[in-house]
Specification:
alpha/beta; 8-stranded mixed beta sheet; globular; about 40% helix; 2 domains; single chain; 14 helices
Length: about 400
């Protein structure tokens, strides 16, 4: 009987070992993984490596290994189970590069600084942009928003050795240098960090809509004295709303397969008096909305893409109020939530995301369109790199 039981165990084990690869081969290849937020290796990529050179170099086996890992049967379920075990049974503090703090999910390896020479290149670029914009009477404003991990820095235990001293010093140096150069600069640290639990997502690397609104008010406070009396979208003109029926799929929570211990829901607003507008994405007219919910999906995934339908290379909103100035925004994804408020104060609002926009450079766009206000919004980890700033191929 004992030998029979051992034989059964062996047979079952062998069935699992062989069944999973077979089921993986016959299943449809997954192109994109939501939880890992990346493209998955396809069988075509393996076929493309079928050559003597790839065989000798080992590239074929590397691609094949990547394909089998990406397309294994029930991959997400397996990884989700492992994540649950790590969080609840083994109680690991760091899982999938995410540290579970007392108040939020934060990156276990956040950016805490960079090369000051790289930062200087960005500062010099801002100086050039300021000269260009002011040459025709416009105004430039550089806005520095603390990253979520930076805002929740107190969450980190000492043994992770997360130190933001260098970045804080660099931010202070950048502020003083830009002030000396006469470049308008706004650091949102003093506004957002004292109440960071209110203004930042507990499951995503961005601020939330409340943080974006505080940033909008601070930006308008700086622009109004320069551009004149602008309409401010104040809280008495709208009502805050929460999508309580949907969980918030933040970027941190996504890495943990939606097992975050911190409940969170998407937030939006409803205008009391709707401001009509037209919206264009990549020069094509689209639905006139700034909040996007896929109501046709069985389980809508509410995440930061709720705002402006995520990252877009170019978005333009027209309100047909010719007496108001025109606004140009550039930066990273921190602009998305900000944009849901900003269009209320301008005739037109154009947003360019140069991580994806393949049109002209930023300076060429400014020279051709001469916007009254140019606002750059980036998080405090991204000023060490000119990538996404609108300069390409060494050109300004």
């Amino acid at each position: 009987m004992k030998r029979f039981n051992e034989l059964v165990v062996i047979v079952v084990f062998l069935m699992i070992i062989f069944a999973i690869p077979i089921l993986s081969c016959f299943g449809k290849d997954k192109v994109w993984d939501f939880y890992e937020f990346r493209s998955m290796t396809q069988i075509e990529q393996v076929r493309n490596e079928l050559s003597t050179q790839s065989l000798q170099s080992g590239a074929l086996f590397q691609t094949l290994e990547s394909y089998l890992s990406d397309q294994i049967f029930q991959r997400d379920a397996i990884l989700a189970s492992k994540t649950w075990l790590d969080l609840n049974i083994f109680q690991r503090p760091v899982v999938n590069d995410i540290y579970t703090g007392q108040k939020a999910l934060v990156s276990a390896n956040p950016d805490t600084g960079g090369n000051r020479n790289d930062l200087l290149a960005t500062i010099q670029y801002f100086g050039y942009l300021n000269d260009l914009v002011t040459s025709y009477g416009g105004t430039l404003l550089i806005v520095n928003v603390p990253h979520q991990s930076s805002a929740f820095r107190e969450e980190y235990p000492e043994y992770l050795e997360i130190d933001y001293t260098s970045m804080d010093q660099d931010n202070q140096w950048m502020a003083k240098t830009l002030e000396t150069m006469g470049v308008p600069y706004l650091d949102m640290s003093s506004s957002l960090l004292p109440d960071y639990e209110k203004y930042y997502s507990h499951n995503d690397h961005h601020y939330n809509l409340f943080g974006a609104y505080e940033t909008y008010l601070a930006v308008m406070e700086r622009l109004t004295p320069v551009l004149g009396d602008l309409p401010i979208f104040t809280e008495d003109q709208f009502t805050w709303k929460e999508l309580s029926e949907y969980d918030y799929y933040g970027s941190r929570n996504r890495k943990l397969y939606m097992l975050s211990p911190f409940p969170e829901h998407g937030v939006y607003y409803e205008e009391k008096n709707h401001l009509p507008f037209r919206r264009y994405d990549d020069n094509k007219e689209t639905e006139a909305t700034v909040f996007h919910i896929d109501e046709d999906a069985e389980n809508p995934r509410i995440n930061y893409s709720l705002y402006m339908n995520g990252d877009n290379p170019k978005t333009r909103i027209e309100t047909d109020r010719e007496e108001l100035p025109d606004l140009l925004i550039f930066g990273d994804s921190f602009t998305n939530a900000f944009e849901t408020f900003a269009y209320h104060s301008f005739n037109t609002m154009t947003s360019l995301d140069f991580r994806y926009y393949e049109g002209e450079t930023l300076t060429h766009y400014i020279m051709e369109n001469r916007p009254d206000a140019v606002v750059c919004i980036k998080d405090n980890t991204s000023f060490y790199n000119l990538s996404g700033m609108g300069a390409r191929y060494g050109q300004r």
